[in-house]
Amino acid sequence: MCKGNKKWVAVYLRTSVKNTNSTFELQETLCRSYVVDNYPEFDVRVYKDAASGTNQEQLDKMMSDIKFNKIEAVSNG
User: Fold this and answer.
1) pTM
2) Which of 50, 63, 45 is nearest to 21 (CA)?
3) Could you state, in chain order, the average pLDDT of each consecutive group of 10 residues for the chain (77 residues)?
4) CA angle, corner 22, sides to 71 and 3, nearest 5?
5) DSSP summary character for residue 56
C-alpha cells in the first residue's frame, strides 16, 4: 500500500451539513496541510462519510485498514 518508503496516515472526515462537498474540501485541505507540514514522511489517505443516520462505511474501512497495518497513523489535524 505504501508508495516507495512512505507510510500512510489516515484522515477521517465526517460532516452533517447539507453542502458536504465544500465542507469535505475545507476539512481535507486543512488536514492534508497539517500532515504535510508536520509529518512529511507520510502520505495521506482520506476516508469520508456524510452523516446520514448511522452510515459509517468509510470509518469501518479505515478501522479495517488500521487492523491490517495499511495505516501507520491517524491525524486529527
Assistant:
1) 0.77
2) 50
3) 69 76 82 91 90 80 93 79
4) 25
5) -
